[in-house]
Amino acid sequence: MSLFRSQVQQMAGYTPGEQPQEPGWVKLNTNENAYPPSPLVLEAVQQVLTGRLNVYPDPLATEFREVASELFHVDADWILPGNGSDEILTILMRTFVDPNEIVSAPYPSYTLYETLAEIQGAQFQNIQLNSNWSWPANASEKAAKSKILFVPNPNAPSGNRWQDSEILELIPSQGVLVLDEAYGDFCDSPHQCELLKSNSGDKIVVTRTLSKSYSLAGIRFGFAVAHPDLIKGMRKVKDSYNCNTLSLAAATAALKDQKWMQANTDQIRASRTHFISEVRGLGFETVESQTNFVWCTHPDGEHERRYQELKQRKILVRYMKFPLQEGTRDGLRITVGTNDELQQVIDALREIG
Amino acid sequence: MSLFRSQVQQMAGYTPGEQPQEPGWVKLNTNENAYPPSPLVLEAVQQVLTGRLNVYPDPLATEFREVASELFHVDADWILPGNGSDEILTILMRTFVDPNEIVSAPYPSYTLYETLAEIQGAQFQNIQLNSNWSWPANASEKAAKSKILFVPNPNAPSGNRWQDSEILELIPSQGVLVLDEAYGDFCDSPHQCELLKSNSGDKIVVTRTLSKSYSLAGIRFGFAVAHPDLIKGMRKVKDSYNCNTLSLAAATAALKDQKWMQANTDQIRASRTHFISEVRGLGFETVESQTNFVWCTHPDGEHERRYQELKQRKILVRYMKFPLQEGTRDGLRITVGTNDELQQVIDALREIG
Fold first, then answer.
1. What is the pLDDT of residue B1?
2. Which positions bear N6-(pyridoxal phosphate)lysine (chains A, B) (predicted)?
């Protein structure tokens, strides 16, 4: 007999993107930001480093919550910090979902939702998107009985962004809608938690991360924005001291330097436009990305071969393959790195054919 | 209807010790280390700070696991890192315990065990200790059906340490024994995971933290040591990137500087001996502590009054009160701070009466 819970015994576990620890790679596989974080982040960490690491961090993350709340024009009790938005997703699952209840997400999208639902013993339901990444006609009906509906907007791996009006129609009658805005700052017109102020706002949780637009994947920091009634329940589930002194200081400083983040996301938007045009010139089809990555497919379907040949040239992109009700869907998800890195991809793809 | 799971709706949530953010307190309420961490920790964080915070940390925590495994003479696949041993406790619960299964712990002990069991929907069972903090005669019978038995050794808030042989008898037949050794390094003869090498070692998980003996409560870092078969299941449940680049660097450097940790724990053991003798001189009863705190009770039972009067003098200790099957048990848990801080407590207690 296994000591493990049956779900844990049976599951494969989530496989993160490859993280080679040695240098020399053009690493465009996990949507990290090509540019460094604000110098204010370094200063802030330096400061707490020589302070008192022997004492616990502020369990209420008071300063961080104040800064984040100003950004979204809400009160501080609308904010809950976590170790990356991944921890926030775990907290959401443990706050709202009992075993055998339904958790839904569009498909293909972020595969961690299914892993977390499995761990919680929930029933996970894929809502298969149309081939142009739009919602199927029965999406709202399928989502209706969910305890949580996760909607990454913009979506991954496609990079497209859905309209607010489409998303509002999907809110489950007895559950919450989690808007995973990990890539929100890369949109042409970034959203600012407007949906929280809609009539259904008290059933919506927005999640944000500092890993992408703020160039801080290394510090693992994300947060939720939601009505205080929802945050109150989530706070009972989170570990009291989930965020550490160093990452709290780094995250607070990063949010304070909006100019730095804006300059980097502006640059990435410009590189994205150029890359899309170049890669289309090579015969690829792409989605109009609103993120820092581009989903690239080729009519010949030879995506895995190209992934392997890029890897041989020390260029790492993400090859993704999704089984569908009929057949499969695959492609290359390529992070919008620096212009130089993207030129290397283009040159290599031209050579590879 | 509440959107929350019924457990979350009903529970009060864990209350951490007070963490005043303003200076000027003699803070002896959450068992932080009175001394700073090793200078190597600061150096290590400085180094990664100017490195690449824009990329994800190593999801396998390779270097940390190597250093930790050497310390306990096991292979690296016996180690799982987490955000404080609190996150390890959460991972254990989600790995091993299904709703309605039994989770046990001695009582009084660390109250977080019960909170985590509640969140998981488990049945929590207190095994009430004798008044001298020894196990009751029926402990092994009571523990038998647990999926997890948590045993903090040394125990909190009492500070006493149980013998290995007593603990081995308590291992549940279909569950795991979690030895929470948060305070292990403060013992007169610290244990070194010897029980993992016993015949029942494959059903034991040892948890450790860097918050106490390594003076790093601020970085939230702990880890589990257990047979690779157990670690493998736990790894499926943990977030891929649960530990960040900064805390990984800090924790690795801290473990490398054993001399620094030994010098601090030696100092704390000496202060503890002196403090126990002083406080006994004032009429208190104390346990022979093997930790960095001392459980103090007074025959007159006026513990809450003394806590309040100390607080008025800006001395913060922990007043704890535990309902028992008959009556209650309360007392003051006082962290072994610097000699100067402890002298202030002694002087104040003498004044307060």
1. 63
2. 212
- Tell me the shortest Cα–Cα distance from A352 to chain B, in angstroms: 27
How far is B346 from chain A, CA to nearest CA, in Å? 23
Task: Give me the phi and psi of B4, to 5 degrees please.
Answer: -75, 160
The distance of A206 to chain B (nearest Cα, Å) reads 16
Model confidence at A1, pLDDT cuts 50, 70, 90, reads: low
B14 touches chain A (CB under 8 A): yes
> Domains in chain A, please, with CATH?
19-36+259-352 (3.90.1150.10), 39-256 (3.40.640.10)
What is the per-residue pLDDT across B106-115, written as a single tens digit (0 to 9) for each?
Answer: 999 999 999 9
* B positions 263-302 inside 8 Å of A (CB): none
Average pLDDT, chain A: 96
User: Residue A220's pLDDT band (boundaries 50, 70, 90)?
Assistant: very high
- Res A187 pLDDT > 70: yes
Could you give the angle at the alpha carbon of A207 between the alpha carbons of A274 and A160, nearest 5°? 30
Assign 3-class secondary structure to A49-75. Answer: HCCCCCCCCCCCCHHHHHHHHHHCCCC
User: Cβ neighbours of residue B322 under 8 Å, at least 6 residues apart?
Assistant: B107, B108, B328, B329, B330
Helix (H) or strand (E) holding B180: strand B176-180
Contacts of residue A233 in chain B, CB cutoff 8 Å?
Answer: 3-4, 8-9
Contact residues, chain B, for A96 at CB < 8 Å: 3-5, 8
B27 interfaces chain A, CB cutoff of 8 Å:
yes
Q: Pick the more confident residue, A13 or B111.
A: B111
**Residue B235: which of A13, A95, A245 has the nearest Cβ?**
A13
